[in-house]
Amino acid sequence: MKADILKPVERRPYRSWVEISREQIAMNYRAICRAVGEEAEVMPVVKADAYRHGAIEVSRVLEAEGARWLAVSNTEEGAALRDAGIRSRVLVMADFFSYTREILLSKELTPVLHSLQDIAELDSLAEKRGLANVPYHLKIDTGMGRLGVRAQSETVLQAVRSSKRLTLEGLMTHFASAANYESSQTAEQAEAFKSLLHFLCSAGVQIPYIHLSSTIPVAYGRKDFWAAGNNVSKVLVRPGHAIYGYVSPTRGPGIYQTIDVRPALAWRASILSIKDIPSGARVGYGGIYQAPRPMRIAILAAGYADGIPHRLSNRGQVIVRGRLAPILGAVSMDLTTIDASATPNLQVGDAATLLGSEGQVSIDAQQIARLAGTISYSVLCGIHARVKRIYL
Ligand SMILES: *Cc1c(COP(=O)(O)O)cnc(C)c1O
Question: Does residue 285 have an active-site annotation?
Answer without folding.
Answer: yes
